[in-house]
Amino acid sequence: MTKHWVKEYLLITFGIILVAIAVEYFFIPNNLAAGGVIGLAIVINSLIPQIAVSTITLVVNLILFVVAFLLIGKQFGGKTLYASVGLSVIMWIIEYFFSPFAITRDLIIATIFGTLIAAFGMAIVFNNNSTTGGTDILAKLLNKFFNINMGKALLIVDIIITLAASVVFGLDIGFYAMLSVIILGITVDRFIDGFNTSKEIMIMSTSVENIGEFILKDLNRGCTYLNGVGAYSGEDIKIIYAILSRGEFIRLKSYIKEIDEKAFISVRESYEVLGEGFMKME
């Protein structure tokens, strides 16, 4: 349990570092208020430059954190507090010790690469049942109570902030900010799907028992025997059904190749598996 807890928080830390890098080196220098509390903070900072973006982000996040803690639960609230405060602290460190600059002034490059880096970081955080704070909390509420996936929920919430950016920075910057929001909404879900993808397999072989034993003992996974009848031969057959990670499937395929090269294997991608040995039902 402790190892799992440490792993989750290390992943969350890595995720918010990526988000902070995207914000400080791609978004803020180019006035790309791409949604979220950070986008709102960029707009406010342009009007009141004496207040740092990291400070504005922290204050608003703390307010929204109370909402998450009350409506979503203590575990989510604790992780979100860590992620939101941690993100503000990392941004503050970058702002005051590393003098952030625009890696590129090309708005297209800044929009695309900044958004991809931020989306990857957010996906890591979301996948560990947390958020980077801000409007991500509102998106998580939509996800929890209305079953709207995280990417679309973010899109709905962030459009309003990009409209504010259009008013403050002009339509051109506003359109780039909107493009960033759209890319973010699409790619966050794709990244999360990629993290959780498993292989759903069915195997027909003359060495069913050996393969089943390999899955149980060597891979430490469960499997199920299904009874079937060959349409051509009319013979009774056993079919193995199992769900494995990518690495486990590669090991299984190598093993099957050694003992039965004529085995028939059907493989499908499974983007979400809940239960023992996989993700917990939150």
Automatic annotation (TrEMBL):
It is a multi-pass membrane protein. CDD domains: YitT_C. One of its GO terms (cellular component) is plasma membrane. Gene3D superfamilies: 3.30.70.120. Residues 221-275 form the DUF2179 domain. The chain crosses the membrane at residues 9-28, 48-73, 80-101, 107-126, 146-167, 173-192. Keywords: Cell membrane, Membrane, Transmembrane, Transmembrane helix. Its main location: membrane. Pfam families: DUF2179, YitT_membrane. Signal peptide: none annotated. It is found in: Cell membrane. This is DUF2179 domain-containing protein.
